[in-house]
Write a structure and sequence with these properties.
The complex is a heterodimer of chains A (275) and B (117). Chain A is of the alpha/beta class and 275 residues long. Chain A has 10 helices and 11 strands. In chain A, the strands form 2 sheets. Chain A has an 8-stranded mixed beta sheet, sandwiched between helices. Chain A has a 3-stranded mixed beta sheet with strand order 5-4-7, with no helix packed on it. Classes of the chains: A alpha/beta (275), B mainly alpha (117).
Chain lengths: 275, 117
């Protein structure tokens, strides 16, 4: 077994870029502490490679050629694409893991049509998680994207299948691999509604996710997600894929809707990967 | 409508520092290579966030463009609200305002005590 860690976390750009505007500094700092503990958990797992299942925001893909799923197989990645001062993260280079990525790619392609890219630019969707999880940017990263921005979006049953295929691919490798999924739950990002959070919806979804309730997770439909959880809610795809890859029960380590300046219910969780 | 072209330009600009330099030097030569309506051209020429928002530019693209323009966060949110007041409801896309212009960030009260949180 080579999957040694699976977890989820939020990635909203305000988490780093608007930290100074958070009114509730106590909750903000509790959130940051939890992210640092997640970093420590990954370190303690002795993972050699980190797969990040993300929902990018037009850093690499546009509607001229939009893959449902794509994996970064290059030797290095760059980011953030955004203004560094705005995101409060300096532009940097992140090592890739081309050999492991190619092996995983070939395995996943047995059941899911996974595109690949040797040129990967990271936006806040990956840079914010790495800022906390691998702050020195010294751990090899394999970015994966699920299109959550340009509808039509991949169906949730395919997302689950992608997660399972990723797990099988990881288990075939000798290397120790960690997976984190990063996406919002309910949120209305980058709109005048920024800061709107449907906490009840979030907590119900997270309950299903932690319990590996596949039937409930796959019963969400995009029209209802859009109505109840906003366009940002489409990013639950990354979280569902991670749960599917993990296979075991989750532990919600942090959730708070008390940081609206971050524009999302801030979340940290891990999963049992032993099953 | 050529919303696709507007978004394609912004997508290219947001992720390409060389294009940003060229655009900074000669805005019109860059914009003329895209098939834009007069309204779209004007919105991009003037950096009119409110108009771009109601034209239907994807929020994730627009947010990064606002960062490129060095627009502060609360100003960005307000420019979109002002755009809705000035130009009407969002015409396309999935980033339409749902809250009637309400502010949800809470922290706004720190800077703007006259506004409800």
């Amino acid at each position: 077994m080579s999957l040694v860690y699976a977890g989820i976390l939020s990635h909203a750009p305000g988490i780093t870029g608007r930290a100074h505007l958070a009114a509730n500094e106590l909750v903000r700092d509790q959130f940051y502490d939890c992210l640092r503990r997640q970093s420590e958990e990954i370190k303690q797992s002795s993972a050699e490679v980190l797969i990040v299942i993300a929902a990018e925001h037009f850093a690499n893909f546009f509607m001229d050629n939009m893959p449902a799923y794509c994996m970064g197989v290059g030797e290095k990645h760059t980011g953030p694409i955004e203004d560094s001062e705005w995101l409060k993260i300096d532009k940097t280079t992140i090592p890739g893991s081309p050999v492991v990525a190619q092996k995983i790619l070939k395995s996943v392609m047995q059941s899911v049509d996974l595109a690949y890219s040797e040129e990967w630019q990271c936006d806040h969707g990956i840079m914010v998680p790495l800022h906390f999880l691998t702050p020195n940017y010294d751990m090899p990263v394999i970015p994966c994207n699920i299109n959550c921005q340009g509808p039509p979006l991949t169906p949730l049953n395919r997302v689950w299948q992608f997660g399972r295929a990723l797990r099988q691919a990881c288990d075939e490798q000798d290397e120790r691999i960690a997976i984190v999924g990063t996406g919002g739950i309910s949120h209305w990002p980058a709109t005048p509604d920024s800061g709107k959070i449907n906490e009840e919806w979030d907590r119900e979804f997270l309950s299903h996710l932690m319990q590996q309730n596949k039937e409930k997770l796959l019963s969400y439909i995009d029209e209802e997600i859009y109505r109840d959880a906003g366009q940002g809610g489409f990013e639950i795809r990354t979280l569902i894929a991670t749960a599917a890859a993990a296979g075991g029960q989750g532990e919600l380590q942090f959730y708070s809707a008390e940081l609206p300046i971050f524009a999302v219910g801030c979340t940290v969780a891990n999963f049992d990967v032993s099953t | 409508m050529s919303l696709y072209q507007v978004q394609k330009f912004l997508y290219n600009l947001n992720r390409d520092e060389k294009l940003q330099s060229i655009f900074h030097e000669d805005k019109h030569s860059v914009l003329s290579s895209y098939d834009l309506s007069a309204e779209e051209y004007s919105a991009l020429d003037n950096g009119d966030i409110g108009l771009l928002y109601i034209l239907g530019v994807n929020g994730q693209i627009l947010m990064h463009y606002a960062a490129y323009l060095q627009i502060e966060w609360f100003d960005y949110l307000q420019l979109m609200r002002d755009g809705v007041k000035k130009y009407g409801s969002v015409r396309a896309g999935i980033y339409a305002m749902t809250g009637g212009g309400a502010k949800f960030t809470g922290e706004n009260a720190v800077d703007d005590p006259g506004e409800s949180a």
